[in-house]
Amino acid sequence: MAPSIRxxxxxxxxxxxxxxxxxxxxxxxAGRVHIDGSSTVYPITEAIVEEFQAAHASIRxxxxxxxxxxxFKKFCIGEAEVADASRGIKASELERCRAxxxxxxxxxxxxxxxxxxxxxxxxxxxxxxxxxxxxxWEPGSAITSWSQVRDGWPDEELVLYGPGIDSGxxxxxxxxVVGQEDASRADYMASEDDNVLVHGVSGDRGSLGYFGHAxxxxxxxxxxxxxIDDGAGCVLPDSQSVRTGAYRPLTRPLFVxxxxxxxxxxxxxxxxxxxxxxxxxxxxxxxxxxLPAGQYEAALNAIE
Length: 304
Fold this sequence. Notes:
The chain is an alpha/beta fold. It has helices spanning 42-55, 67-75, 91-99, 130-137, 168-178, 194-202, 213-218, 239-244, 266-286, 293-303, and strands spanning 31-37, 59-63, 82-85, 104-113, 115-118, 127-129, 159-163, 189-191, 207-211, 224-225, 227-229, 234-235, 251-259, 289-290.
């Protein structure tokens, strides 16, 4: 079997997208496309699917949110033609895919500043160091109060919300902050659905959580965004700090994966062509940072 195509991520990004293009009219085709995976990527895919369905009523596109790991489970047994992912595919997942005749093509689609949130009633914390985050989230952590995080902070219960173990955000955060993938304390409220985490953090004064930046953008009236200090000062995630990589270490690429064999079907080609023609515009609208234009051109060329 031919090797998978992996399109390189330009990071830090130097040549930046000046504008987003649009697609032309085409003869209609019919069929179904099934997508599953990351809740972080979901806002982009949802926006694209909504526009696509309005223009292509004869192609039905279903989108599930099982988390990156859950999405790969379905993708690798042929239950989904497209997988949304907030991390790269693991060697074990790639092996499982190929054992089932699925040949993944990897396409970077945007950058996310994985964001750390507290409740707006929290008037003491504006910035956390990476070391403080590690001490809070590492396995066996005994930190249960904000006063244990930093001297001078109140003796108020620290209630944690974070992605579940099938989430790519969980994989990325544990590896980057804790130092080992899947290494995390277990006594927190977990969900692969970032909307559940938003609800938890926004409803609990002592809360702390982390999830994709698009969910902060959509709910900024009920969330407080924290800056992160990796040793070079406190930096908030925004388009500039994510684009340049200054928001360290929580800037990360987002991906979609497509089964190469599924691209023999006209409806899948039609949808993916639409995806990469419009993703730069819609990624920005939902709160992520688009890639340089050349990344999307390369994706379109690979699909064709």
